[in-house]
Amino acid sequence: MRRLRILLILPLYGGSLPVGRFCRDALSRIGHVVETFEGPDFHPTYEALRNLKVGEQRAEHLQNSYLQQVVSQAVLAKVESFAPDLVLAMAQAPLSRQALKRLRRDRVATAMWFVEDFRLFTYWQAYAPFYDVFAVIQKEPFFSELRKVGQENVVYLPLAADPEFHCPMELSPPERRKWGGDVTFMGAGYPNRRAAFRRLLGHDLRIFGTEWDGDPVLEKAVQLGGRRVSSEECVKIFNASAINLNLHSSIKADRLVSGGDFVNPRTFELASCGAFQLVDQRSLLDEAFAADEVARFGDFDELRKKIDYYLRHEDERRAMAQRARERVLTEHSYEHRMADLLSFCERVLPGWPALSTDHAARDELPDELAGELAGLLDSLGLSRSVSFADLVWAVRNRQGELSPLDTAILFLDEWRKQYGLD
């Protein structure tokens, strides 16, 4: 597959935001030109509309209008400017149905990676038919439900990790005391987790994350005042802990193990860090990791017994964690996921990607500038065969003052556009 231009649409906020940033890095590493539409830049205005004190219905109407009439139009403007081969949207990306219809009319290929539970977040029903490809983290019955609304190009694309970010880390003794412990958990305080963890306080349990307030029993176990933990801090927690609990969320307090299907990103991230984890059994987990790579539990009694067992068997913990990391490196990185997604698009979208009409940059520059091109390409990390369009985009996005060569390249690009020479 040739070098593609991919516009990645990030949501204003939410769990798919960090996933989107890892996708951006992965796509760049496998050789594609990636431009990101930064949804979070629009979040302050979105929140300001909520706080107008004009009534809930009116505020919701204003927010929806803002997303559809302003943010979606901004995405279309970015598409026109960047001319991507593919628009890749993360879950909750600010793309209206009207904008998606416009992209389809203009023959711009679109894909969404829906990294959410389709049973809880049902907005997919309104948007899935308008994407050319719909990637999901669940299988049946989601595949069948998508086909009912007219989406045939469905691909199972489980979550992943970024081994360059989620990696083993050497920590000092003070850092280990701050970020780890015998048994730790990082995540939000869902009802099933609150119910389970109240019964584990005798195991030196340490809890990181938000939404744990209002529980005097767990209060002493909550670290850092219950503030949000950054992605960088998560890696420290994973590396500093003997046992990382990985309990998928459920709104039902009476069901510790929900019996769900998809595997959360924490499973892959912990494995990529070479960290030992105890994860609740999921129906799709066996496809991702073997039982000797990631330890499972099916109920509270089994969880407690395995905590006691693995705290006494450090060698087994280390061996399992190492095998899990090796599995991530060979199968579960974001590079693997993005390559799989692009291969699927090529397989199901007729004529995609179109043959490039871009000319090599060296053929587009006047002779007096061509001699300086090699040094510029090296500084930008571009190959000698880079297209003129990709060179222009790299120059526009570099930091610092423009050199005379940069200025000449941008001027030539504007001149070509003005006279229709693209």
Sheet with most strands: strand arrangement: 2-1-3-4-5-6
Mean pLDDT across the residues is 91
Distance between the termini: 23 Å
| C-alpha Rg (nearest Å) | 24 Å
Strand content: 5-15%
Which percent bin holds the helix content?
A: 40-55%
Query: Uncertain spans, ≥5 residues at pLDDT below 50?
Result: none
Contiguous helical run count:
19
Task: Give the quaternary arrangement of the chains.
Answer: single chain
Task: Set down the secondary structure blueprint.
Layout: E1 5-9, H1 16-29, E2 33-37, H2 43-50, H3 56-82, E3 86-90, H4 97-105, E4 109-114, H5 124-127, E5 133-136, H6 142-148, E6 154-156, H7 173-179, E7 183-186, H8 191-197, E8 205-208, H9 231-240, E9 243-246, H10 265-272, E10 277-280, H11 285-288, E11 295-297, H12 300-312, H13 314-331, H14 334-348, H15 361-364, H16 367-370, H17 373-380, H18 388-397, H19 404-418
Parallel strand pairs: 1-2, 1-3, 3-4, 4-5, 5-6, 7-8, 7-9, 9-10, 10-11
Quick gist of this model?
With 422 residues, the chain is an alpha/beta fold. The protein contains 19 helices and eleven strands.
